[in-house]
Amino acid sequence: GQVSDVVRTAHGYHLIRLLAKKKGPTPDQDRVLTSHILKQVAPTQDAQQQLLDQLDRGAIDVAFRKDALRKSCPPNFK
Predict the structure, then answer these.
(1) Nearest residue to 8 (alpha-carbon basis) of 32, 34, 51, 39
(2) Residue 41 to residue 11: CA distance in whole angstroms
(3) Element (H, E) at 55
């Protein structure tokens, strides 16, 4: 039932609540069940333009896990 502090990510602000924990045979096999609330915030026009400018200058590296994603993105992401 523990609730996290507010966590800010690129997607917005999150609150995460622990619902259950289950020990696995080893620590890397432990399992947790959580729920979370996400409050998305839209970037300002200025922030969007700054990111587009950085993309156009090649100042941001974009990595794709799947080649299919790269093919469907705008040219400045490739």
Answers:
(1) 39
(2) 7
(3) helix 45-57
Measured distance CA(1)–CA(16) in Å, rounded:
10
Tokens standing for residue 5:
């502090």
Concatenated DSSP letters of 26-52: SGGG-EEEEEEEEE--PPPHHHHHHHH
The residue to which tokens 């992401």 are assigned: 77
Looking at the chain, how many residues does it have? 78
> Greatest CA separation found in the chain?
50
- Over the stretch 5-62, which tens digit does the pLDDT of each residue have? 999 888 889 999 999 999 999 988 999 999 989 888 887 888 888 888 887 887 877 7
Token pair of 68 as six digits: 């299919």
20 neighbors 2 (Cβ within 8 angstroms): no
